[in-house]
Amino acid sequence: MTSVLVTGGAGFVGSHIVDEYVDAAYDVTVVDNLTDQVHEDEPDYLNDDAEYVWGDVRDRELMTDLLEDADVLNHQAGAVGVGQSMYEIEKYVDVNTLGTARILDIIVDEDVDLEKMVVASSMSIYGEGEYYCPNCETVRHSSLRDDEQMASGEWEHSCSECGHSLEPKPTPESKPRDSTSIYAITKKDQEEMMLSIGRAYDIPTVALRYFNIFGSRQALDNPYTGVCAIFSSRIKNDNPPLVFEDGEQTRDFIHVSDIARANRLAVESDAENVAVNVGSGTPTTINEVAEMLIDLYGKSSELEPEIANDYRQGDIRHCYADPAKAAEELGFEAEVGFEEGMQELVQWGREQEAEDRFEEAHEELEGKGLVGED
Ligand code: UD1
After folding, report:
1. In the chain, fewer beta carbons within 10 Å around the N or the C end?
2. Ligand 1 centroid vs 70 CA: distance in angstroms?
3. Of all helices (H) and strands (E), which one includes residue 141?
4. How many CA atoms lie less than 13 Å away from 107 in the CB half-sphere?
5. CA trace torsion 104, 323, 312, 10 (10° rounding)
6. How far apart are CA 326 and CA 254, in angstroms?
7. What is the pLDDT of residues 161-186, one digit of tens each?
8. Considering only CA atoms, which residue is closest to atom 26 of ligand 1?
9. Is 280 a pocket residue for ligand 1 (Cβ < 6 Å)?
10. How far, in Å, from the CA of 225 to the mean position of ligand 1?
């Protein structure tokens, strides 16, 4: 039986990956430090057929023992808040970049013999997605909108050459990276370090660039996680979801069960030394997210999305995946549609207590000058 070590396997994404591996008859060990912000105690969804070790991936002795027993390393552990990474810089670099460096030192220096390594990367390493200028008939790469543009409410990108508005296009893996947050920089580091060591030591390695993940077990009262969780807790507490910009910005929402399947395929396919997008390939606007969640929570007669007249510094306007490479390398294609996935999130969310901590988090970011009003 192939044994897989899943770091961060008690978290939102990691726990679904654990379930997927257990169902496919892998021998699964999890190492997780139950980070406070995400989990309070041991979550009740842990899989009885996996083995759990509570500890930190930066603990060299512990990781040496665990890696010596593993055939596959699936590295999901990490510090995950994008906004927070801009004022807890050392922590993010320590956990994500140096944590991965330590694991790789163990792999090359100790008695570790891995068949495969999989690492959680992120679409955040692209910065803005790919765009096309219909007037110049060419692809354009935009950098982040500056404060002046955001403050004027000019949300869309225009062509740097002719000024025509740009159209978003599917983002391929070949798009030059433009990591604009510390979080994104550490994800880029993790991905590159794992691929580099994998190549040098002949360990087939796959980096999965996750797009915007949603689904059950997402920490609803963690205001630093994605928009689906934030809107869910707002709606559950009878508050309107606050939409930044004009709500017509888009993201590629992918259900966590699809992410889990991509992680199994990364182990079972012949893919090696490659980074692939894991997204649905379909853009969805933030207004659509707000409306869908209000509807699914049955609050259409009471609530409607509120345009907050705000924007978040460092936010991109559009990014969605070109899913072709994942199909070719892993045989992966997203299966759960947006509405079906949202139903699963809401069904689970109805049973959760979720404190609405949006205002608190918003004030914290405001205090750091990381949101601005237009
Ligand atoms: C960022 C990260 C991504 C990470 C995700 C969740 C980047 C480019 N990407 O994505 O890696 O997985 O956070 O941590 O850094 N919004 C509202 N109202 C809210 C909250 C958000 O309108 O209350 C809007 C945002 O302004 C944004 C969109 O929803 O336009 C998506 O936000 P979010 O879910 O935080 O994800 P990203 O910014 O795409």
Report:
1. N
2. 35
3. strand 138-141
4. 28
5. -50
6. 14
7. 999 999 999 999 999 999 999 999 99
8. 244
9. no
10. 8
Residue 105: CB partners within 8 Å, gap ≥ 6? none
Ligand 1 pocket: which of 37, 80, 227 to mutate (most atoms within 8 A of CB): 227
- Distance from Cα 246 to the centre of ligand 1, integer Å: 14
Query: Is residue 27 classed as helix, strand or coil in its secondary structure?
Result: strand
Beta carbon of 102 within 6 Å of any ligand 1 atom: no
Q: Positive or negative, the Cα torsion across 302, 347, 354, 363?
A: negative
- Residue 250, pLDDT above cutoff 60: yes
Query: Does the domain spanning 3-373 belong to CATH 3.40.50.720?
Result: yes
Q: Which atom of ligand 1 is nearest to the CA of 231?
A: 23
Domain residue limits, the chain:
3-373
Structure tokens at 108: 């090359």
Percentages of the chain per state (helix, strand, coil), in multiples of 5: 35, 20, 45
* Cα dist from 241 to 204, 221, 244, 292, 360, whole Å: 43, 14, 10, 11, 15
Q: Which residue matches tokens 């807790």?
A: 233
The DSSP line for 226-278 is -HHHHHHHHHHTT-PPEEPTTS--EE-EEEHHHHHHHHHHHHHS---SEEEEE
Ligand 1 pocket test, candidate residues 82, 178, 316, most atoms within 8 A of CB: 82
What amino acid occupies position 20? E
Residue nearest to atom 5 of ligand 1 (CA): 226
Cα dist from 182 to 13, 136, 203, 273, 277, whole Å: 21, 33, 28, 24, 20
pLDDT at 374 over 50: no
Q: Is the CB of 290 inside a 6 Å radius of any atom of ligand 1?
A: no
Distance of CA 5 to the CA centre of its chain: 20
Q: Judge if the beta carbon of residue 242 lies within 6 A of ligand 1.
A: yes
pLDDT digit string (tens) for 113-172?
A: 999 999 999 999 999 999 999 999 999 999 999 999 999 999 999 999 999 999 999 999
Residue whose Cα lies nearest atom 3 of ligand 1: it is 124
